[in-house]
Write a structure and sequence with these properties.
Histidine phosphatase family protein, His_Pase_superF_clade-1, alpha/beta, His_PPase_superfam, 196 residues
Length: 196
């Protein structure tokens, strides 16, 4: 009962360029243009989904997807750090940032810990592989943190491995399998097929 889950990270925006804790800012002009250009490279799926952030929904629209919003694919809840740049937070709260980076159970910002993020994303991923969904395919535009969390959960990696995974904008990560046994194909750039 194999399920195919394809996760596309959203296009670039100003918050990402500035290393700002904020997934809800709109795409910038370049991000919109790149997403529109990549629309022809989006794989076909039985159900298209999007994380609830503006960046995910706008990317899904620019890719030509009629995506349903999936709350479980919300970005990492960093509460008190939302909207702030990483360098600002690190300068103001160095011990808190060190705890956040070093302890998967820490949530010094008042939001989700890394373990909570991986558990939330993993529960969603595993819910897709039930006996009622054999051969199903899902395509979701999801924040990079959610993509990384899905890979950590899917491969049963320690939560600390999250920090070793990079997810570039507009890349496709594919998980196939079922709850308890996932295979992963990482980070294929979405590029339009050549014309001609």
């Amino acid at each position: 009962m194999t399920v195919r889950v394809m996760l596309i990270s959203p296009a670039m925006n100003a918050a990402l360029r500035e290393a700002r804790f904020d997934g809800d800012s709109p795409l910038d002009r370049s991000g919109r243009e790149r997403a529109r250009a990549a629309a022809g490279a989006v794989p076909v799926a039985g159900l298209a989904l999007s994380g609830p952030s503006g960046r995910c929904r706008e990317t899904a629209g620019a890719l030509g997807l009629a995506a349903h919003t999936e709350p479980a694919l919300a970005g990492w809840d960093l509460a008190g750090w939302a909207g702030r740049r990483l360098d600002e937070v690190a300068a103001a709260e160095p011990a808190a940032v060190a705890a956040w980076l070093g302890d998967p159970a820490a949530a010094p910002h008042g939001g989700e810990s890394l373990r909570d993020l991986v558990a939330r994303t993993g529960a969603w991923l595993d819910s897709l592989g039930g006996p009622d969904a054999p051969g199903a395919s899902f395509l979701a535009v999801a924040e990079a943190a959610s993509v990384r969390a899905a890979v950590v959960h899917g491969l049963r990696l320690p939560a600390e491995a999250f920090w070793r995974l990079d997810v570039a904008p507009l890349t496709l990560t594919e998980l196939s399998g079922r709850s308890g046994r996932w295979n992963v194909a990482l980070g294929r750039p979405l590029t339009a097929p050549p014309v001609g």
